[in-house]
Amino acid sequence: MVYSFDQGPRFFKYISKAGTYIVDGVLAFSQFGVCVVYNVFVAATLKQLIDVNWGVADLRIYIAVIALCLIPPFQIRKLKYLVPFNILASILIYTGFSLMMYYLFVGLPPITERNIFFGRIDKLPLFFGIALFSITSVGVMLAVEAEMAKPRHYLGWFGILDRAILLVIISYVTFGLMGYWRYGDDTAGSIALNIPTDEVLSQVAKGFIASAIFLTYPLAGFVIIDIIMNHFWNKNGDLPNAALKESILRVCTVALICITAIIAPNLGPLLSLVGALTISLLNLVFPALIEICLYYPPEYNYGKLKWVLVKDIFYVIIGILILVQGTVFSIKDMISEWGGGDTTTEGPETTAEATTANMSALTTALTAAPPDAPGFRFL
User: Fold this and answer.
1) How far is Cα 177 from Cα 348, in angstroms, rounded to an integer?
2) Minimal CA–CA distance to 266: which of 189, 174, 160, 379?
3) How far is residue 68's CA from residue 206's CA, in Å, rounded to a whole number?
4) CATH topology for 2-367?
């Protein structure tokens, strides 16, 4: 970030150091929001399964219990030791999705009964927030790339990241098309919400997905601790009792995530808020500004007709629009749901499909070995 801004216009040179701290802060906050969503999701799914069989309890109790269970795996400090957890998580989540496909293919109506071209315009900001949250995970991507022996394999043309995202997109498109074809306008925030909760098959599917997300939690939190320890608290590597202090930091982080989840247990707006507030910056605005600065020197000149500059300005505008509108709509939805009573029925599975991006990226990255490819590109 500092290097790229130093190559750019004078204004960017003045804010280059501050820009690094801003990116670190947004990245850490983004992963913090992901952990909050994961905590709520697992707790809400567990509550849904227990309510059907034994009785109703407050969602916040489940959030606290899940947080306590997350403390031991959150103490894992090496990324390579998280690989088995994420391999198992990928198996569980796709097994759960496969079980849910049974409900999508049974009783399909004629496709002509569905309005397949138009939706509600006022829901676009919510969609963009959730979509950005789902298909991208900058924090995990950077952490994985930093730990790889050959980082060039990760970002090359049809490299590890491309393969993982392709699998994720295929999953989303399949569930989106089949879900709407099956349930039409009655489709809930997630397809899994349309599936019966009192059948063994659906309970097993939801249990698999919740377990997968539980196993992915340490990966999302890894980025938070890495930024705090290596970029700020122990930047020079001379912090006394660093291991003990890091362990305490990890426990405090889980506790803070738990408290936040208890305060805001509404997954839909929460997921959209995280996506709009942070992912729009990390995936659109910041990369575009970096490329504007890198191509600023005369020897690059932004290409023919300044197409690189035009593209990056377009990305910045779109990112800011998603940031502002998505944040406003998400906060409004949160306020509306806080004043509307029960907020625990819709949402647990809203994050299930979204979680696949993190797990697929890590699992594929640390187990595959693709051929060499160019290491940097921006699209």
Assistant:
1) 20
2) 189
3) 21
4) Amino acid/polyamine transporter I (1.20.1740)
Return d(Cα 19, Cα 15) in angstroms, integer.
6
Q: Is 344 helix (H, G, I), strand (E, B) or coil?
A: coil
What's at 122, amino acid-wise?
A: D
CA dihedral over 272, 278, 62, 47, signed as positive or negative:
positive
Both structure tokens of 174: 């399949």
Cα 379 from Cα 364, distance rounded (Å): 21
Contact by Cβ (8 Å): 351, 130: no
Q: What angle do CA 241, 244, 246 make, to 5 degrees?
A: 105
Question: Which backbone phi and psi does 354 adopt, to 5 degrees?
Answer: -65, -35
Report how far residue 206's alpha carbon sits from residue 123's, in angstroms, rounded to the nearest whole number: 26
Non-local CB neighbours of 73 within 8 Å, separated by 6+ positions:
85, 215, 217, 218
Q: What token pair was written down for 40?
A: 């709520």
Q: Which two tokens stand for residue 334?
A: 């949160």
Q: How far apart are CA 257 and CA 37, in angstroms?
A: 9
The pair of three-digit structure tokens given for residue 378, joined into one six-digit string:
């921006």
Residue 346 pLDDT greater than 50, yes or no: no
- Pairwise CA distance, residues 169 & 151, whole Å: 23
DSSP assignment of 262-305: HH---HHHHHHHHIIIIIHIIIIIHHHHHHHHHT-STTTTTSGG
Cα 152 from Cα 283, distance rounded (Å): 20
Task: Render 55-97 in DSSP notation, one character per residue.
Answer: ----HHHHHHHHHHHHHHHHT---GGGGHHHHHHHHHHHHHHH
* Integer angstrom CA distances of residue 279 from 2, 144, 172, 319, 323: 20, 18, 18, 9, 9
pLDDT (tens digit per residue) in 161-196: 778 778 878 887 888 788 888 888 787 656 766 788
Cα 41 from chain centre:
13
Amino acid at residue number 11: F
Host H or E run for residue 233 = none
Comparison of pLDDT for 19 and 309, the residue scoring more: 309
The whole-angstrom separation of Cα 5 and Cα 7 is 5
Q: Sign of the CA dihedral 181, 183, 188, 193?
A: negative
pLDDT, one tens digit per residue, over 254-301 is: 999 999 899 877 766 777 777 777 778 888 899 899 999 988 887 777
